[in-house]
Amino acid sequence: MELGMVGLGRMGGNMAVRLVRGGHRVVGYARSRDTVDAAAAQGIVGASALADLVSKLKPPRAVWLMIPAGAPTEEYLDQLLGLLAKGDTLIDGGNSRYTDSIRHFTKCQSAGVDFLDVGVSGGIWGLSEGYCLMIGGPAAAADRLRPIFETLAPAPDAGWGRVGGPGAGHFVKMVHNGIEYGMMEAYAEGFDVLRAKTTYELNLGQIAEMWRRGSVVRSWLLDLSAEILKDRAALDAIPGYVRDSGEGRWTIEESFDLGVPTPVITLALEQRIRSRDETLFAEKLLAAMRQKFGGHAVGPG
Question: From CA 22, how far away is CA 13, in angstroms rounded?
Fold first, then answer.
């Protein structure tokens, strides 16, 4: 089976390589010619432009967008709708908001093009371990592309599935990322408590490795933490600035609309936002208030 891949960054490029290794023909396009050339060295057919990519695919075509959500996705989707034909399929594998994906489905439907929103999880390890694929959109369109999904997934019968109609794939991925926020924050806080107990001189790397086997808190995120904690010097050199790509915020907004409490996810997002404030104004104000009302000392000690 063949597929057009728009966006050959670390995630999209690795997905394309996995498909090629699985016996599929992939035509790839990226804004950077160097990126396209690097992909071609991995067996991907390079395209010089979107029109070139579409021309190199046999109808009915399937084109997968693996680019940032928002304006970039809107721009490329509109361009591709001017190039694709009735019966083709357009897939958004980025982290678009699910409400945008519902709108994109309607726009594609008007042009006779099928649209699937696919939440993708797996990161840089997906090339070797496979990707979790959460698919939203028409069942018939998802079924036509089954060979693609089976190749990208960890196994043909595991780690992927159509979860519902238009927008459902990105909705499920949104909540997935919200859960991820809470899990990561819990690990980070727990290891920080262990680090602070200096009287025991705890070896955090040893503890992480120990927890990976048999513990109820074992997970892939713990596996990654154990790897990170092997080199404390490298970890200490990393700025404590934590970004968020939007899904956590959207999960919280949705939870308010649905009347479902999400205190852990909400606090995890607040901690990410807090990590970016190097001045720590709130802490300064708290210390000053304590000094004013109680004469408490300001600063450590």
Answer: 14
Segment (H or E) for 264: helix 263-274
Which tokens belong to 268? 């995890």
Q: What does pTM read for this prediction?
A: 0.90
115 pairs with which residues across the strands? 90
Helix%, strand%, coil% for the chain, nearest 5: 55, 15, 35
CA angle (44, 130, 213) in 5-degree steps: 150
Average pLDDT for 139-145: 98
Provide the residue count of the chain.
301
What is the CA 85 to chain-centroid distance, rounded?
29
Q: Which two tokens stand for residue 46?
A: 């390079």
What positions carry a catalytic annotation? 173, 180
**Strand 45-46 relative to strand 25-29, pairing:** parallel
Peptide bond into 147 cis (omega under 30): no
What residues pair up with 120 in beta bridges, in sequence order? 133
Residue type, position 146, single letter: R
pLDDT value for 279: 64
214: Cα separation from own chain's centroid: 28
For residues 15 and 67, is the Cβ–Cβ distance under 8 A? no
11 by DSSP, 3-state: which?
Answer: helix
